Amino acid sequence: MSTDEWSPQGPVAELSDTECWALLDGTSLGRLGVSVDSQPEIFPVDYHADGSTVLFRTASGTKLHELLKNDSVVFEVDSRVGDAAWSVTVKGRAIVLTTPDDIDAADRRPLPEWHPTKPFVYVTIVPSTISGRRLNRHVTAEIAR
Amino acid sequence: MSTDEWSPQGPVAELSDTECWALLDGTSLGRLGVSVDSQPEIFPVDYHADGSTVLFRTASGTKLHELLKNDSVVFEVDSRVGDAAWSVTVKGRAIVLTTPDDIDAADRRPLPEWHPTKPFVYVTIVPSTISGRRLNRHVTAEIAR
Fold this sequence. Notes:
- The structure is a homodimer.
- By secondary structure, chain A is an alpha+beta fold.
- Chain A has helices at about 15-25, 65, 100-105, and strands at about 5, 10-15, 30-35, 40-50, 55-60, 70-80, 85-95, 120-135.
- A six-stranded antiparallel beta barrel of chain A has the order 3-4-5-8-7-6.
- The longest helix of chain A is centred in the N-terminal third of the chain and has 9 residues, at about 15-25.
- The two termini of chain A are about 30 Å apart.
- The model of chain A is unreliable at about 1-5 and about 140-145 (pLDDT under 50).
- The interface of A and B includes residues 7, 40, 57, 80 and 137 of A.
């Protein structure tokens, strides 16, 4: 934790890259944010993080698949348990895997199973930045608003 | 449920507006998506939904506050319990509340408590569309990939 500060909700700790990847490794549902013509969109996706990339699937021809034409994406995972909360955000480029070697490697990663009714593509996010924050809520009794 | 179809993960049901607002009413952590210069951003926010608007707070001067200069936003809430999953998405305009009457009304809504170390603003999302999907995973045993 490199920096501690107070947020309006309580103390905030910035997480190291290693801590961020460990948190991503511990869960499998994240949200992909994309933007087309200044309209943001968010899609929940099942993913696998391996410490350097994020991998997910999307069916061919879906809206999400189309929107990846703007490959500048954000990926966010968060959790809140009791008074503790964390959030990890990855920014980077989304790349649709096309070569047999890349697809074979993706097939071996432990993504959730997928119902084989439609063809899908693998998408990987190559991060430019990763950041995370952990928040501990210290709500006082005398809060006015 | 107006339309049933199959997704690659199983059957999908589109949810009515009423069902979407009921799901939003049942939880309090969502994700706000904004876009500036084609760069999408996602922020987890505690919110309150009252059946027609979404309300949340942000500290004055934060990055999120700045980004709302592009007021076209998306707000997404999802849940996954066992084989069932749902996601609700609201698109609309984000408006920072400024009048005493609006702020008084917001003060009365049951948002989570807030640590009073920094001034904050209330932000409401006035929806242009709301949509939701419920997914039931029917993963077969013979999945190949």
